[in-house]
């Protein structure tokens, strides 16, 4: 089970249910024996104890740090600098030397070797948008975002990546994906249109009445393809003319 917090909750529930049986030797209920033990317990401290360790790390040129043999992303702006890792059993928080949070990862166990949070890297990707198709990030994108970015021009790709950099700071991809779906209802949307729908969704103002446009009042338009994929046909035969 990947979620250790949820696993601990199942242990707690199992222990609560198990207390209603008799002790294997004393023939008394475990719940009654526990009440006797409580009388000898010392008072718990008012403040909870955070069981963590701190480790100073130096990210590589890609902004990745290595902790216990596994890699965790930080941000391109912290490459080759010094950061502080706050390590607990379930998560790893990367912080600045002043203890300001940079990013938080679920701690890796087992065969997993790398945890990558792409949001801090999107602004850098926007500077070279044509290279996005060759990144792991592109492979992890929802299908509609892949198709949208594929159909964008270079300037539109840049705006889309910068938009995702903003949208994914405090929200996961589910809201961004729904925003793109709604914004694409009437064709290829701009980054600004997706952003507008996104904030309507998170602020609870997603219901909008569409204009009732008569179909016979719209002149027929020829289909138009977007992006640069249609240029690929020029290279099918190969060679130089």
Give a description of the structure.
The chain is α+β, with helices and mostly antiparallel strands. Among the domains are: 53-117, no CATH class; 121-205, no CATH class. The protein is built from eight helices and seven strands; from the N terminus they run ααβββββββαααααα. It has helices at residues 4-18, 30-38, 122-125, 136-140, 143-150, 154-167, 173-183, 191-202; strands at residues 53-57, 64-67, 70-73, 83-87, 91-95, 101-106, 114-115. The strands form two sheets. Strands 1-4-5-6 form a four-stranded antiparallel sheet, with no helix packed on it. It has a three-stranded mixed sheet with strand order 2-3-7, with no helix packed on it. The mean pLDDT is 87. This is Transposase for insertion sequence element IS21-like C-terminal domain-containing protein. Residues 44-113 form the Transposase for insertion sequence element IS21-like C-terminal domain. It holds the Pfam family Mu-transpos_C_2. InterPro entries: IstA-like_C.
